[in-house]
Amino acid sequence: MVGPAATIANRICRGRRRYGARACGLVLTLTTVAAHAAGTPLDSYLDELKTLRATFQQTVSDAHGNEIGRATGTLIVSRPGKFSWEIHPRTSGSSAGQLMVCDGTNLWFLDRDLEQVTVKPVDAALSATPAMLLSAVTDVRKSFSLTPAGTRAGLEWVLVEPRDAEADFRSALFGFAGAQLKRMILEDKLGETTTISFGKIERNAPVAPAEVSFTPPAGADVIGTPRK
């Protein structure tokens, strides 16, 4: 069992649970970058965005380009600062998948295979990553550089790079086809690359409060103490 001194980001970044940590960084960028991304397709896409609902396919490749993981999932965003990211890895062994929920106060991570829930207040869990933007303790432009990255593979790209050397990822690319977000690519410090390809996306459709809240399932082992 992981020690209580480790952050949630470190816990979920190990082994097959790496999916959740990467997902979190990408979603938190989505939920916070819009107001400061003037001059890029991110600004146009996220302007007046209140909610987002999407399905996606995700692949993870190692530093040599070899695929080491594949998953499908669903993303729900309710701005400001709330999201649900659920994934179902496609592996040779059985996996019930993982669920990450940020309710605006706490970040919850459920590993169904382990029947284990990890929780920490958002600011305590994510203070060393771009996720700290959820608690409004920093300005996006102070934490990231946002740069138009040209067109390739039929998509227009925006490069997002953290200014903090301690951030958990090196860079993120957002790919757009016209006004539609189609792909996100995240490279971490180990050289591993996560590519997320979106399917159906709904903007500003109703999101029920229950979809971005979390209650630990009965019998699950809960690590950490949520903020009330």
What topology does this entry show?
Blueprint: H1 8-12, H2 18-32, H3 41-46, E1 51-61, E2 67-78, E3 82-89, E4 98-102, E5 106-111, E6 116-121, H4 122-126, H5 140-143, E7 144-152, E8 155-162, E9 169-177, E10 180-188, E11 193-203, E12 221-223
Parallel strand pairs: 6-12
Antiparallel strand pairs: 1-2, 1-11, 2-3, 3-4, 4-5, 5-6, 7-8, 8-9, 9-10, 10-11
Describe this structure in words.
The protein has a domain of 146 residues: outer membrane lipoprotein receptor (LolB), chain A, CATH 2.50.20. The protein starts with 7 loop residues before the first helix and ends in a 5-residue tail after the last strand. The N terminus is likely disordered. A 12-stranded mixed β-sheet has the order 7-8-9-10-11-1-2-3-4-5-6-12. Strand 5 and strand 6 form a beta hairpin. With 228 residues, it is of the alpha+beta class.
Note the main attributes of this structure.
5 helices; alpha+beta; 12 strands; disordered N terminus; 228 residues; outer membrane lipoprotein receptor (LolB), chain A; 12-stranded mixed beta sheet; globular
Helix content: 10-25%
Separation of termini? 25 Å
Output the structural class.
Answer: alpha+beta
| CATH architecture label name of the domain at 8-140 and 202-214 | Clam
Roughly what is the average pLDDT, rounded to an integer?
A: 77
Widest β-sheet, arrangement of strands: 7-8-9-10-11-1-2-3-4-5-6-12
What is the string of helix and strand elements? Answer: HHHEEEEEEHHEEEEEE
Radius of gyration: 17 Å
CATH class of the domain at 8-140 and 202-214: Mainly Beta
What proportion of the residues form beta strands (DSSP E)? 35-45%
Main sheet record: 12 strands, mixed
Tally of individual helices: 5
**Which residues form runs of ≥5 with pLDDT under 50?**
1-16, 127-138
Strand tally: 12
Dominant shape: globular
> Which topology of the domain at 8-140 and 202-214 does CATH recognise?
outer membrane lipoprotein receptor (LolB), chain A
